[in-house]
Write a structure and sequence with these properties.
There is one protein chain. The chain is mostly helical. It folds into two domains: 92 residues, no CATH class; 53 residues, no CATH class. It is 77% helix and 0% strand. The chain is built from five helices and no strands. Helix 1 crosses helix 3, helix 3 packs antiparallel against helix 4 and helix 4 packs antiparallel against helix 5. The longest helix has 28 residues. The termini are far apart. InterPro entries: YdcZ (IPR006750). This is DMT family transporter. Keywords: Membrane, Transmembrane, Transmembrane helix.
Length: 145
């Protein structure tokens, strides 16, 4: 069960991204504003995580001071992602947009793991990992056709 739960949550997270992207794109199209749509999306997400923090966790806010400065900007990456895919999906299609983002994520992840960047444990780049990245990149090309 220790490895099953993270796998299940990762799969659900992937399904959420696949659903979130067209939802945000439709909201941007309906409102005529990418930025309003992203704001609404993040407002809802913020309300959910704050409620979960208050109801479930309640870790004191002061503990966040212990995090390194670069750890404080994670939300900026998420905001860019939401806005970028909401913009790209109607123009490229959902499948191509998401395969491009997955390819970029996996490529960056292999590099981050290899060098132990951003506080990660080092995991060497191996031939199977390179083949996996190559297959994802090939998938991008196939989805694009």
């Amino acid at each position: 069960m220790q490895t099953v739960l993270p796998i299940i949550l990762a799969i659900i997270a992937g399904l959420c991204v696949a659903t979130q992207t067209p939802s945000n794109a439709m909201l941007a199209r309906s409102t005529g504003s990418l930025w309003l749509a992203a704001s609404i999306s993040f407002g809802g997400g913020t309300a959910l995580v704050v409620a979960a923090w208050l109801l479930i966790d309640r870790t004191p806010l002061a503990t966040a001071r212990q995090a390194p400065p670069w750890a404080w900007i994670g939300g900026l990456y998420g905001a860019f992602f939401v806005a970028a895919v909401a913009f790209a999906a109607p123009r490229l299609g959902l499948a191509l947009t998401l395969t491009l983002t997955v390819a970029a994520q996996l490529t960056a992840a292999v590099i981050f793991d290899h060098f132990g960047l951003l506080g990660l444990d080092r995991t060497a780049i191996t031939l199977p990992r390179l083949i996996g990245v190559g297959l994802i990149l090939t998938g991008v090309l196939l989805v694009r056709r």
